[in-house]
Write a structure and sequence with these properties.
Length: about 200
């Protein structure tokens, strides 16, 4: 396991920052430790149909769960100014007040040698697949846009030349991201807005 520290500054969205961190590491991360404060928390409380939003100077007590480039499952507990403790499933819109230091453990998967293996390992029925490159600004924008559109997708990060050549033999494209629907290549970043019609 690789243990890496993520330091978030004021106004950072916790989930967006963690998923981008996971994307850069091309790996699934596990939250090991956290220290810091929040100005806004959005959590799903047990038995509630809608998320709760709490504002103020909020101290983080615990954060646990897993984070992937396109998905997180995180639970947060925190206290308010009266030391009242809250907790629940962490949602987007949770914002750092002054600073948040998170220690994340990443477990690399050396078995992903080619595109077919990567796709099979997801064992997903998701119709949309996004093939991306680490550090590619258009790949990052595509992921952000898909989250905004609330479209479910699988993210496969191309990590070596063999994967790239395998993908290029299918798509006949050298640019990223590469978007597939029902395993058919539909284009790159510019095609994302048009794929809303498929869902």
């Amino acid at each position: 396991m690789r243990e890496l520290s993520l330091k978030l500054s004021s106004n950072s969205d916790v989930i967006d920052s963690l998923e981008e961190f996971s994307f850069k590491q091309n790996s699934t991360g596990y939250i090991l430790s956290v220290v810091g404060d929040l100005s806004t928390v959005v959590i799903q409380c047990p038995g509630k149909s809608e998320p709760s939003k709490i504002n103020g100077h909020l101290e983080v007590i615990t954060l646990s769960g897993i984070v992937k480039p396109n998905h997180s499952h995180l639970h947060l507990s925190f206290s308010d100014g009266d030391c009242k403790v809250w907790g629940g499933h962490l949602n987007r819109g949770t914002i750092v007040f002054k600073a948040l230091d998170i220690l994340v453990g990443f477990i690399d998967n050396p078995g992903k040698n080619n595109i077919q293996q990567s796709t099979n390992q997801t064992k997903s029925t998701t119709r949309l697949k996004v093939y991306a490159l680490n550090g590619c600004p258009w790949s990052k924008r595509a992921i952000r846009l898909l989250k905004t559109l609330d479209i479910e997708y699988d993210l496969i990060i191309i990590g070596n030349d063999e994967q790239f050549e395998n993908l290029r033999s299918i798509s006949n494209s050298n640019t990223f991201p590469q978007i597939f629907i029902d395993d058919k290549f539909v284009g790159g970043y510019d095609s994302i807005l048009s794929i809303k019609n498929y869902f």
